[in-house]
Amino acid sequence: MKKLLFLFFGLGIIISCSSNDSDTDTTSNPNAFDRAALLTNWADNIIVPRYEIYKQKTVLLESATTLFFNTPNTVNLDLLRNAWFEAYKSYQSIALFNFGKAEEIRLNEISNTYPTDVAGIENNIASGSYNLNLNAQYAKQGYPAIDYLLNGLGTDDASVLKFYTSNANAAKYKDYLSAVVKKINDNNTVVLNDWKTSFRDTYVKNNGTSVTSAVNSTTNAFVKHFEKDIRTAKVGIAAGKFSNEIKFPEKVEGFYKNDISKTLLKIAIQSSKDFFNGKSTTSEINGSGLKSFLDYVKAERDGVLLSSTINKQYDVVLNSTTILNESFSNQVNADNSKMLLTYDAMQKLVIYTKLDMMQALNISIDYVDGDGD
Questions:
Q1: What three-state secondary structure class fits 146?
Q2: What residues contact 163, with CB distance under 8 A and at least 6 apart?
Q3: In this predicted model, what pLDDT tens digit does every residue of 319-331 receive, in sequence order?
Q4: Residue 142 CA to its chain's centroid (Å)
Q5: CB 307 within 8 A of CB 299
Q6: What is the DSSP letter of 284?
């Protein structure tokens, strides 16, 4: 009898301990994290405000285009170039939100496919007949096309101005530039309006754990953007990482302006880092984000909080860009080893986010991966 009592007492302790362990484990269970709060912070404090700021820039770009057409001179050409650059910089902060309406209308492909198709642009202008909604037109519009139309038509301001004044097709050049700028502004309007009417609520309510949930799709878009649009497109391709070390200086972002590649890269990296930390667009407050999600599940790498490792690697990546030339085409030609160092720093960050973070958060990768990370 005593043995039976001792056995029941022992089982009671085990059951009690198991119950306590289960309660404790919920604090590290990804499915128990407050995803609604996460999505609310993303939508209200980061995504929509970034689109609103971007909208201001695209409106100014369209206004500067009209001013230049009305009075095509050097002063207004410079104003238009500045408006284009400001909008281009702002675009870097919203490019990672490639889901929902943005993905549906192919906002990224239309806005920033490079290198731009110069021959295709010239054919469109000469014919005066084109449909910018077609997939085949992605490389003939967006910010890279504007770069060519403002900076690549001639070697100096006077020669560029002639295309909009005395050239036989001056009216067609104006029409095409106007159509490309309008397309950028219109697309942003469509996406922003969708967020501010119905999509915001749908997005926040979609707080489950399925592969189609908002947290999963947003996290995938975040990881994919850094890997494909920042690491690969902005640095890797030009540096020859995907072409047996054959360099492509003509495939850098901002090729014709030729002194903005570094600036665009740094803004894109910082925008990615801020999103990771849940940083508000309009303040210095860090709300719920991927960092807090990782901390909630107590994710570590080599005994260190994974969120700290990721943030430190972001800093390493940003620091690696300080030695780069403002023109990546010049950098590739002069000393490509520095571009490769930046790429290698980015690759480590891809591993930390795409492999370690996604696994810790129990989020499956939903895009095709051909890089063998």
A1: helix
A2: 153, 154, 169, 170, 173
A3: 999 999 999 999 9
A4: 15
A5: yes
A6: S
